[in-house]
Design goal:
Elements (H helix, E strand, L loop, with lengths): L1 H28 L15 H11 L1 H15 L6 H19 L21 E8 L2 E5 L2 H11 L2 E2 L16 E7 L4 E9 L2 E6 L3 E5 L1 H22 L1
Antiparallel strand pairs: 1-2, 1-4, 3-7, 4-5, 5-6, 6-7
Helix pairs in contact: 1-2, 1-3, 2-4, 3-4, 5-6
């Protein structure tokens, strides 16, 4: 029975170590493409790999501790140490509120889906409740895509901006929703993508966006009449 236990423990450790090695490789070279851009927290492969390394710290250290009691070699904790570094990295990331910082290749750019993937858009806010589709979707995405990154981090699901907040829900044809927020801050119109970044629209783009929304509201009212 003891031999079976040691064999099973060694197998678990070997499998865990192999997984750690693979994730380290992905964390080192897995850049250049964002996975699942429609989700609230899009990640590149290397970001996702480092997150899984952090998650794997506890099970890896437990297995390593059990194996150490048999072999008495501290090197068995090496995979656990790698996972610990990933865990400390993500703790630091969340602590300072930089979810997609300079170490990540996205550069904090706003991430928007392709217009053809969106079934409808809903804008809600103070005295505003507009659900629309058609050409407005492409125009809206174009305006949002030109907003400039302020370098400020977004660290919450919903910005605390009171009645001046406008919520933009992009509803996908295959199900699911991606959400952004519009609000005024320091005299400028800001676009915030939760956990991705905060972006500012220049005056021309702001005027264009307001015109688009006003035109669409007028069209909706006309249809109702």
């Amino acid at each position: 029975m003891e031999k079976v236990k040691r064999t099973a423990l060694a197998a678990l450790y070997a499998g865990g170590s192999a997984a750690v090695a693979l994730l380290v490789l992905l964390a080192a070279v897995g850049a250049g493409r964002v996975l699942f851009p429609e989700t609230m927290l899009p990640m590149e492969p290397r970001e996702l790999a480092s997150a899984w390394l952090a998650i794997g710290f506890l099970p890896m250290v437990l297995v390593s501790k059990q194996l150490y009691q048999t072999v008495r070699r501290k090197i068995v904790f090496l995979p656990s140490a790698v996972c610990l570094l990933a865990l400390l990295f993500w703790v630091g990331v969340w602590t300072v509120g930089i979810v997609r910082g300079p170490a990540m290749t996205s550069g904090g750019d706003i991430i928007l889906p392709q217009a053809e993937k969106i079934k409808s858009v809903r804008l809600t806010g103070n005295e505003l409740d507009l659900t629309t589709d058609g050409d407005f979707i492409g125009q809206l995405l174009l305006s949002l895509s030109q907003a400039k990154n302020t370098g400020r981090a977004s660290i919450q699901d919903v910005p605390e901006r009171g009645a001046g907040l406008v919520r933009i829900d992009l509803n996908f044809r295959e199900g699911g929703t991606s959400t952004l927020f519009l609000y005024r801050d320091d005299g400028g119109l800001m676009v915030e993508q939760p956990y991705q970044g905060i972006y500012e629209m220049d005056e021309a783009l702001e005027a264009q966006l307001r015109t688009q929304i006003a035109r669409e509201l007028a069209a909706q009212i006309t249809k109702q009449e």
